[in-house]
Amino acid sequence: MNTQDIKAMRSLAPLITDRHRVTDTVHLPIALRRRRAKAGRPPTIRFAAWRRRRARWGAPLYSIPTPAVAHDLSVPFVHYYDQHPTWEDRMGESVIQARLIHYLTAVLEWLYHSDGWFVATNLNIYRQPRYRAYPVAPDVAVFKGVRITHPGQRTLRSWRLYEPGRPPPQVVFEIASDTTWKDDLRRKPIQYALLGVQEYFAYDPNQPPYFAQQQGRLRGWRRSGRWLHALTLDPQGRLWSDELDSYLVAEGGSLRLYDRQGQRRLTESEAAWAELEAERAAKEAERAAKEAERAAKEAAWARLRALGIDPEAE
Q1: Cβ-count burial of 266 within 10 angstroms (0-12 exposed, 13-18 middle, 19+ buried)?
Q2: What percent of the chain has pLDDT over 70?
Q3: pTM of the complete model beyond 0.70
C-alpha cells in the first residue's frame, strides 16, 4: 500500500477497522456485510480489493462527504457527474420503465402545456456547488412555475438549487426496478424531503411486482412539516395529488392520471386523436340526424299516398 493510499485511508475513519491506526482493511456496507456473513466470509476486505470493486461499480472510491467549498457563481462551474455517468446511468432502464417514464412525461407536459411548466426526466439535481457532489436524478420531475422558453435551455445537464431562480421540483416520480425498488421505498422519501419536494410517488410496473402486493403497486408521500409522510389509498385504490390536481391510478403495468370528474389525463397525441374522434362522431351524428329526417319525411309521404293524396302536387 503506497503513501497516497495511506493518506487517503486516514480520511476514511468510519470505514477503517481500527480508528486509532491505519490498517489495510475496510468495512463494507451493512447489506454487503450481512450477505458475506451468511456465506461465512469476513465482514472486511483488503483496501486494494475495495478500490477495484468501487471502480467496477462506477462509484466514488471514498464515500465520506467532502466539506462544501464556496464557489463564485459568476465563474462557469461543471459538476463531475455532469460529464461522467452515475451508478444509475450505468444500470440503464428496462423497456417497461422507459415506456412508462416517456408516457408520464408526455401526460404532464400536455397537462401544463398552456402554462409552459418544466417537466424533466433523469435530470441531475444538486444542492451544493461541490465538484464531486452526487446528484439526485428522479425518473420524472415537475417544476411548477418554471418555464424553459429557449430551446437550447432544454438540453441542460443539471438543475442547481444553489443558483438563483432554481427551486426544487414540487412532484417527483420513481419507477421501480429490480435494483432500485428498495431505495425507492426507504431512502428516496428522506432524500426528496431534504431536497424540498412536496409530493413523491413510486410505482412498480413489474410482473410480478417487487413491492409488497398487499399494499399495491402505487405508493405516495406528501410533505407535512419537514418530512414526507406516506399516503393511504382511497377505497378505489387511488392516490390524490394536490400538486397535480389529479388522481393517480395503477392500471396493470401503467400509471394513469384522472381529473376530479373521472376523465383520464391525455398526452398531446391522445388529445389530438380524441379531438378527431369527436369531430368524426359529430359528423356521424349530423349524418344520422339528416337520415332520420329523410326517413321520417318518406314515411309521412307514404301515408299520404295511401290516402290518395299526392304529397308532391301543388
Answers
A1: middle
A2: 75
A3: no
